[in-house]
Amino acid sequence: MLAAVALIPHGRLATYGQIAELIGAYGCARQVGWALRRLPLPSPVPWHRVVNARGRISMSPSREGSDWMQRQLLLAEGIPVSGDGQLPLRRYLWVPRVLPACAMGADD
DNA sequence: AAAATGACTATAT
DNA sequence: TATATAGCCATTT
Fold it and tell me: How do residues A13-28 score in pLDDT, each as one tens digit?
């Protein structure tokens, strides 16, 4: 699980469902979020590269404010994030080795 | 064991 | 294009 998140390339994004699918748990997007929630702030995994399917940072009162921290981290990665946590998922979405390298540089 | 909850996602308005 | 509603599935009470 965290391993899947850990292998997200630098400067690239991935959705919860994507991670879930990657670990062989399709439809378990919520569990991914659950796992990241219990993750400590100084975590060794790039949890900030994980966003929801709408390409936005999933904010919640449970996160106290770590969501905004995520925004900062993403900005540090070189990903432009709007004040609302909206980011160009279409451009930065990580493609875990889809078909051939015909993805026009859309992969890592 | 049943019911409630949540860093989600996909449809329907 | 943007809210509202309904599925989903593991964890928690």
Answer: 999 999 999 999 999 9
